[in-house]
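Open question from group meeting: does this chain pack into something compact, or does most of it stay loose? Before anyone orders reagents, we agreed to write out a predicted structure and look at it together. Recording both the input and the output here so the notebook holds the full record.
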Amino acid sequence: MEWRQTCMLFLIFLFQVLVNEVRSQGGNTVFDIRQFGATGDGQSDSSKALEDAFSNACNVVGGRNQILVPEGTFMVTSAVFDGPCKGLIEFRVDGVIKASAGIIDDDKWVAFRYIDGLVITGEGTFDGFGESAWNLNDCKMNSQCKHLPTSIRLDFVKNSVVSGIHSLNSKFFHMKIYKCNNINVDGVHIIAPEDSPNTDGIHIGDSANINILNSVIATGDDCISMGPGNKNILIQNITCGPGHGISIGSLGKYNNEADISGITVQHCTLSQTMYGLRIKTWASDIQLTAYNITYDDVVMDNANHPILIDQEYCPSMGCDESKPSSVQIKDVWYKNIRGSSKSQSAVNLKCSSKYPCDNINFFNIDLLYQNSDNSVNANCKNVRGSASGIEKPPSCL
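Structure tokens returned:
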């Protein structure tokens, strides 16, 4: 475990060197989107100007080339930036990129694909204008619902950095990282109302060596969610809430899902969240394993369900409750988890009767009920493991 975290910290150092180099040199060439027809009046569509600026920067051989979104509000209907590029790319946002009202016939709004050595930075904002479309989201009632656009997508991107930006009121997920490798997300701010539907802060799928660091996430759904196929994910120094906490899953819904492993969540604070640290799987015949997962030094501030393994996950109607989950959860460590629970069920482990949770370990769990001396409890179902140190609530292992 220690060698893996050492490697991750070394990668973080290299990523920060890349960010600092780009910032200090300012890029070999700056492509200001206003030179390509963008107007920062908040009304004119600047989509083509953004794509043209990127295309020009992407085709410069070598160097570090910057696409600049200056101060102002630039309305963008949809923009897709495809590599590979011939040099390094910095996408700098100092102003506001604002989505058009309603929805578009796509599941992405701003997308970066097939790029090696991308830096997305600046103190500006991606405003998804989600309030114009949230009423069209029927996913709670319709399991086959059409997903609204994700604000920022990284697909098949590697050796890249996202730093400092703000994401506001996404229509669906704020950021989705898919099929990526070596991505560092550092110092971002993600904000949406508590009742906004499916506005996950950052969703990671089928990716490896991803670091989410030093960020503030307050949304209507998971602050960070991790689907199947992920390896070596470090989540560190995150302030989360409101929202649904930090989740692994859901797992076991689709055929050919890959195992998820090497997840570390540490030095985080979860405040007024519906869930805290959650692993969720569908009751289905889909087989995969979630393993080598560590939660360490996490503060709960009135999280409704601080520690939850739910292998009976079914957010909408139509699940076959007679089937146990075929997802194996094993080798999980909860260490130094402390704070307060909004419910008396502070620890709830509902594991599969077919593949019981194995080697689930608790060390120094210190949770109170709503900041009072009232007791909280722990419930275990189909779990094998151990507990030591502080046991509040008394362990059910």
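Observations to bring back to the group:
Residues 242-397 form a domain with the Pectate Lyase C-like fold (CATH 2.160.20.10).
The radius of gyration is 21 Å.
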